[in-house]
Design goal:
Blueprint (H helix, E strand, L loop, with lengths): L11 E5 H17 L3 E5 L6 H9 L4 E4 L2 H9 L4 E7 L3 H11 L3 E6 L2 H11 L6 E6 L12 H13 L5 E5 L11 H24 L6 E4 L5 H4 L7 E4 L7 H6 L9 E12 L2 E4 L3 H4 L16 E2 L8 E2 L4 E4 L10 E5 L3 H5 L4 E6 L2 E7 L8
Parallel strand pairs: 1-16, 2-3, 2-9, 3-4, 4-5, 5-6, 6-7, 7-8, 8-9
Antiparallel strand pairs: 1-10, 10-11, 10-15, 11-14, 12-15, 13-14, 16-17
Helix pairs in contact: 3-4, 4-5
Length: about 375
Amino acid sequence: MLKSIDTISTPAILLEREVIEKNIHRMKRLAARNRVALRVHVKTHKIPELARWQIRAGAVGVAVAKVGEAEIFAKAGIRDIQIANLVVGEDKLRRVARLASHCRLSLAVDSTEHLIMIASVLGRRAGRLQLLAEVNSGLNRNGVNSYKQLEKIFKTAASVKGINLVGLMTHAGHAYGATSREERGFIGTMEGAMLVNFAERLRRSGYDIKTISVGSTPTAEYCAVVKGVTELRVGNYIFNDMTQVALGTARIIDCALTVFATVISVPSKERVIIDSGSKALGLDKGAHGRNFIEGFGYIEKKGDRLSRLSEEHGIIDRPKEKYQIGEKLKIIPNHACTVMNLFDFAYLVSKEKILRKLTIAARGRSD
């Protein structure tokens, strides 16, 4: 007989199986409808078992943010990995080369200096990698800022023996600052259109562009429909969180991850204390440094939000509902990805029953 979630020591992460299934299949249908490959960004969950679940449902492979994450997923048998980041430094590039001998590996580049570094460190082994030139589509983080810079990278790649530059990638993370669905749609459409335009210009100059990789959970429904895009790269959609709810990308019922917490004190009608603070919920109030979310987590079935956090305590000021000491709560965090990095394992659950315990294998792999 399956154990009840009430037997779990708090704070803990709960992952609702049925909601995950719906989220996975919703994104699968979006990609299939638009005939683009679906690549899932596993920095969200950091769990190889969930990655295999997504691949069985149609994903072509995974994306990661760090070499350390790539090593964990390669060891778990994932054979198509994109490091959606810039990998700089001799030690890390040698680790990348070792990975590329076991799986299909791609990574980003956004300067001729970086390209030459890869060729210099790896020599012949550089040919094992599929490189994607990263374009800045508005986030103003990594990526080239103009077609002229992009063309220079491709010209340099053509002159360096063994370099395999196969396409373009971008991340329109500034969509997390959108204040309306229309603005989010414009950003997503432009994300895809910019790369398709650049790819067409490069092809006219004789370069073979195989991959155009775009995406984020907020822009997925818009960039996926742009003709010419070949790959949709998304991560947060598997869980969703209060950031996605605030953006209008998801509803409360679409949020699969909750932090399970216990009420430890009700010192007055004006204040409730729980055993989950910033070490369990994080301090995010929006993505990419933008603060647009009220509170630090939404309490399911109560409608209250956590108004303050210390390291080990969460505080609900002026609660709408009544709470009792010992009561267990499910809290939807503001940012699922960072919360997953705060725990060693999560519980996959269904209808208040524990299905199994999942190790968050890549947590802490920020190297």
